[in-house]
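User: Here's a chain of 300 residues. Predict its fold as tokens.
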Amino acid sequence: MTAPLSPQRWAIRIHQILDAVFGADKFPIDIAAIAKEFTAQICPNDPIISVRGDDLPGFDGALFRAPRGRKGWGIIYNDRLSSKGRINFTLGHELGHYLMHRDAYPNGFQCGDGDFLPWGSEFRQIEHQANVFAASLLMPYDDFRRQIDPKARVDLDMLSECAARYRVSLVAAALRWLSYTAKRAVLVVSRDGFIEWARSSERALKTRAYFRISGAPIELPDRSLAAQQDLLLGGSGSMKHEGGVWFAKPVHEMSLYAEQYEFGLSVLLLEDDVEWRRPDSKSEDDTYDRFVPPELRREW
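Assistant: Prediction complete.
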């Protein structure tokens, strides 16, 4: 019996077809066209036959089986979403569910924010798989690395250019960059003066530069740019901080406030002056103390 394809392998399979047809001019990916044409090739008796917008209160998107008497599936995205990039990622996410999960979930999916589900839950895991597929299809690593080298010092303009290239949100582009960069970087999304969620690059995570937000809410540092929106010119800006603002070490903060969506986004870059090595049990606490000031520490 053939093992099921991983999210990355499904994305690679589609890109092989796109490369043969479009070559280097395949971006941005037309998810709606792929959803119907590719599934008709691989599963002609049960393809995706409809991709459309509709009112989906509380959900970003849905994958549903066609009404009784018809074969196939449909993808619906919430047409109240104002971000075209978010819509595009939602379409990719639902296509991932079709390719990987429709047999196990014959009634389909209604997808909101999977981050609020327990990590160990089965549904959270399959939501993660659908996100990995969407990111791999829309923003393949080989092309993204050509836009921003893993060792390059990024800025918001570079990330915005990638977001436009792949027709995704700035948050999605920043997360993709974080997943491969060699820099110590942290992405912070905030709302109403508090950190809503945060992600760290691998190197930042391994040097304990991150925020634990599973406990009490973490207030934005008073001296951070994210907490001083009046300093943002045209909604964005950058500032270099001494130690003790975001972390115990100096940080270069690049922030913007998306008034339309009422959230702030900050990319925090830490200096590469620490040679990373895998911490052992004795050194972990020392490393954590060095990068996280007392007021920002949280325990599990």
